[in-house]
Amino acid sequence: MGLKNGSVLVTGGAGFIGSYLVDRLVREEPDNLVVVDNFFLGKESNLEEAKKNYPNLKVYNQDASDYEKMKEIMENENVEVVFNLAVIPLSASLTKPGWVFEQNVNITLSICELARNDFFDTLIHFSSSEAYGTSEYAPMDEKHPLNGTTPYAASKAASDQLIFSYCRTFGIDASIIRPFNNYGPRQNEGSYAGVIPLTIKRILNDEAPVIYGDGEQTRDYLYAIDTVNAAIDVYNVKSTRGRVLNIASGKEMSIETVVKLIAKYLNCDKPIVYEKERPGDVRRHIANIYLAEDLIGFTLTIKFEEGLKRTIGWYKEKLIKDELR
What we know:
Blueprint: E1 7-11, H1 16-26, E2 32-37, H2 48-53, E3 58-61, H3 67-77, E4 81-84, H4 97-116, E5 122-126, H5 151-170, E6 173-179, E7 181-183, H6 195-204, E8 210-212, E9 218-219, E10 221-223, H7 224-236, E11 244-247, E12 253-254, H8 255-265, E13 273-275, H9 290-296, H10 304-324
Parallel strand pairs: 1-2, 1-4, 2-3, 4-5, 5-6, 6-11, 7-10, 8-13
Antiparallel strand pairs: 9-12
C-alpha cells in the first residue's frame, strides 16, 4: 500500500523538518496521519498549516524511545509507515553527551523493535551528515567513513548501523536518508539554533553577527522542502531499501559567506565578531548526490539565495507578530 489511503506516523513531526514532512504528507491524502513528538524542540505552531489542511491530524506528546507507549500508539492507529525524525540536537550533546547519545540510539532501537515485531511495515529514517565528520575526500559519497566528531554524530552513525543490522538480521523494510545542512522557515532560533536562524535573530535584535572560528569551514545547504520531497520519493522507490542516500545540494559554502549574505540582505553594517571555534565543529562538508539522482531522480528545486531570502522574510514576519502579542 502507498501513502495514499494509508496510515502514516511521523516521529519528531512538530519539529523543523518534521513539520514540513507532515505538510507534504497531507498532499499524499493518507487515511490517517499521526505525529509523535515530545516537544523538546518541536512546537505546536509548526503544525498549524497541517491542522488547517488535515483537520483529523493526531498529535501525541510522547517520547519515541518508550517502546511500550509507541506500541500502544501503533496498535491504536494501525500504523503502516513510519518516518523517523525524532532526535535530540547536536548542540545538546556538548553539555549532556551521555544522555543525547543514549536517547537518540534508544529512539531508533524502539522503532526497529516495533518494525521487527510487525507493528508497522516500512521505516524511512532520517540520519545526518554529521555522521561523516569532516570530509576526508570531496565530494563525500555514502561510502565515506563515519568519523563523527560529537556524541550527537556518534549517535546518528550508531542509529544507522542499528537499522542496517535489523534489515539484514530480521528483514525489516527500511531506507535511510542522510540530509546535509537543512535551513528554512521554522528552524529553531533558540538555545539549539543553527548559524542561519541565529545570525538572522542577532541582526534583527540589532546585534553584531558572530562566527565561531575563522569562518572558512564549509557546509552543504539544503532547503527543508527539498529534503522532505526526497523522503517521499525514497519511500516510493523500493530500490532504496536497505540503503542510505545523501540528500544535499552538492555544493559547499563557507560559514563566512553565509553570514555576510544574511548581513547584506538585512542591511547590517556591524562588523562580524569572531569567537573561539566550537568543540566538534566539522571543517568541511560537501556531498556527492549521484546515488539520490540515480535512484530517486533527486534535483534541487530551491537555490540557496532564494531560500535564504524566504527564510529571512519569515523570521522578520515572526518578529513583528511576536512584538504585537
